[in-house]
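Quick question, first post here. What does this chain look like in 3D?
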Amino acid sequence: MLRVRKLGVAALMTALVLSGCYNKGRLAPVDDHSMGGNRAAVRVLPGAENAGKPGYYTVKPGDTLIRIGMDNGQSGRDIVRWNKLDNPNLIEAGQVLRVVPPAPDAPVARAAGSPSPATAIASTSAASASTPPTAAIAAPSSAEEAISFQWPARGNLISGFDESKNKGLDIGGKAGDPVSAAADGRVVYAGAGLRGYGNLIILKHNNTYLTAYAHNQTLLVKEDQVIKRGQKIAEMGNSDAEQVKLHFEIRRQGKPVDPAKYLSAN
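> Answer (accepted):
Ran it through. Tokens below.
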């Protein structure tokens, strides 16, 4: 009798377990919506329709407007204006920016109180942008090619141009030694917002050439200021550098070139 009861209890337990599994399967079906219903919609980034076109640049992680402008021979402030960026401090990886002037380059008012592009960083936050139709990149004129550069500082050459390791010349000196503009131009950047360059000045000379002056101790000019060839623009220092020196670059349409080939005898 005891054995029968034990068998009865065992059978009952088995039946309950099987019943529970069956009911669980019926009461918890796979919800199709849980698999795909909450999938985030793909967002189209500003200017995406211009990706790959001449005169446009696709933002990469870590980019800044200073770097984008320097690599494309433009002012970060102009890039803000051409793209009508509401907040130049927020550019997004994958966003496509115009990096050549619209044709014609109609004036676009800059919003009052908008931040300087100097601190603009790549961000995961969205930035609104509106890009005009593609403009052809004009070939440099003979006048632009004929620009004459002078040495920006007097001192020993520490290191020369190397396309992969050193994008300019490093000129030695003492803290406070004068740094001069290599040619007539306009200040498109003055600050310390570009990593590895310290206190930096970028001059735009025409639609072809920029020059950069890095690691300064003191900056003596401000953005949009018109500068004459030979004018003192900074004092040599070692900001973001291991020693006192001037790092000097010439960029032709944004590409670093060997300054020694452009500098007149000093």
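Residues 48-123 form a domain with the Membrane-bound Lytic Murein Transglycosylase D; Chain A fold (CATH 3.10.350.10).
Confidence is low (pLDDT under 50) at residues 1-7, 14-36, 105-138.
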